[in-house]
Amino acid sequence: MNTAIISRNELLEHWLGHRNLTRQTIEKFPEQELFNYKVEGMRPFADMVKELLGIAVPGLQEIVSNKIGELNENLNYSTKTQLLQAWDEATPQITELFNKISEERFVEEFNLFGQFKSPIIQSILYFIDNEIHHRGQGFVYLRLLGIQPPFFWERG
Question: Residue 52's closest CA among 112, 144, 129?
């Protein structure tokens, strides 16, 4: 008997919806503010996006290959165009890699980046939660800059 509340395909679609909304958030930022605007104790939104790029695809690659790598968030993107291009290139890679993970593996313990040991499903949920968290910070920045963020429910 299958008691799943959400299917793996629904989980992927949910994640891709969040990625679309994060992309819209990146687009809303003026170039200079994307890379330079910050409040005390926080990083510029571009640095947060680089973190997201450094986690999702590399993390899925580790899971699929069963080989642990190093976490690298120091990605060399210095323009909004480069950041959006990297985001757009990562999204189909996420779909491809996610689809290579069998549902049976979701409960398997995995030591992501050699630092975070948990079931694979928890790592995937972390990827999504971390993106939502940083996008929320981006929303605050946009509001402080007098820019209306995208509506959080418009993920399509």
Answer: 129
pLDDT of residue 3: 65
Nearest-angstrom CA–CA distance, 60 and 68: 10
Give the three-state DSSP class for 131: helix
Q: Which two tokens stand for residue 17?
A: 């919806």
∠ Cα 109 70 101 (to 5°) = 40
Kindly tell me the sign of the dihedral angle through the C-alpha atoms of 103, 104, 108, 110.
negative
For 8-144, the fitting CATH number among 3.40.50.10490, 1.10.405.10, 2.30.30.40, 1.20.120.450 is 1.20.120.450
* Domain map (residue ranges) of the chain: 8-144
Q: Where are the alpha helices (DSSP H) in 66-119?
A: 80-98
pLDDT exceeds 60 at position 1: no
